[in-house]
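Re-running DUF2889 domain-containing protein to confirm reproducibility after the cluster update. Everything else is unchanged from the original entry.
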Amino acid sequence: MPSFCRRIQLEGRQTSQAGEVRAVLEDDFHHFRVALRHRLGRVSEVSAEAPRHPFTECPNAATSLKALLGMQLEPIASAVTRHTDASLQCTHMFDLAGLAIAAAARGISHRRFDIEIPRHVDGGSHARLVRDDGLRLDWEVQERTIVSPPPYAGIDMRQGMARWALSSLAPDEAEAALVLRRCALIALGRLRDIDEDLHARPSGSCFAQQPERAPQAIRIVGSTWDFTAHPERLCRDDQSWLHAFAE
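Result of re-run:
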């Protein structure tokens, strides 16, 4: 049975006053790119691309990232949620932008996350993350709840986890935990055929799902891919773009 697989990769370069971070994300349902430039400690430019996406409106969310212009670089990726309303953004572009800003603030020139969540059986699975510096997370999950190990056991991934992680874990681990949390919830989408949806649901939870936009956000049938047997193919086509820094 297919696993949900995701890779996130960031590449950056900077001087004492300016720099650029490029970030990509690819998984079963999504493939996004975000390029972010900063100067004197603030975001000066941001752009995004959507090579593969579930709904026709998703690429238009790139414009919403302009709300981050002028934001001060902060080392916590979720700081972007204090700067603008996350529900008006593409969730995945927004996550990439947050990670890129945090990488710039911390002077990180390379970062990669590899995530796998095997298909749920009776609501249960294991959510696994490996980061390029050796950090590993491995959770037993039951639908939206982490079952083990401590200190994660009993945490509801939909209610209050970000606040708990940022106050209870070292910042570096909290970032990885929230990356894995996002994937563990998205992986539940493997339990149904989303190609049956004619358009995005008007839940208001992201750019494409805003009630006034959802009926025009038409489902792109066949945009879900399976990387279970070949996770090395994730972000394979992004490598040249990742290193094509502007002069």
